[in-house]
Amino acid sequence: MKKLSRSLLYLMLVSVAAFLVWHFEKPTREKTGDVLNRIFLPDFDPQQVNSIQIEHLMNGVKLKKENEEWVVTNTKTKIRENINPAEKVPESWQKIDSGKLLAALDILKNLHVVSLAGSNPERHGYFEVSPVGMQVWFYDSAGKELAKLYLGKMGAGFGESYIRKEGDNNVYLTDHFLRVLFPADAEKWK
Known about the structure:
Layout: H1 2-25, E1 35-39, E2 51-56, E3 59-66, E4 69-74, H2 78-83, E5 94-95, H3 98-109, E6 112-118, H4 124-127, E7 134-139, E8 145-154, E9 161-165, E10 171-174, H5 186-189
Antiparallel strand pairs: 1-6, 2-3, 2-7, 3-4, 4-5, 6-10, 7-8, 8-9, 9-10
């Protein structure tokens, strides 16, 4: 009888603890935690963008608007310059599918951040939102920088990625994989 009551007491304690955890933690409720669900660049206007520079490791391109059409050329990245300063990359501007670029800019304008992934600058390399990751600069017609973004690696889901603005240590998880929208190779824009 004594063994049964000790076992019963343990069972009751575990049951009460489980109920308290369930009651206060609400494990069946949808998690909201650090979910932000807000526009990443609320003031970004694709109509103002007149040129774009993209660098990713050894590859780089410049895009510019000429007579309401977009053209692209390969460029020498900072990493490539450090490795081989004597190398010349000739400018060869070629017309691209402007619709593809306009669609990418529209996605960027409406890009939602899902959550804050971190704010520690020492972790920027992990998320690939540092100078060795993909960098994208947006300029207006006067050459003024509108934004500089670091497009990071893919998130846990295939349709997510990390992003960071220049001058901001916050790294956000977004609802799009952005590197495919802004390739650093001129051939992929044609």
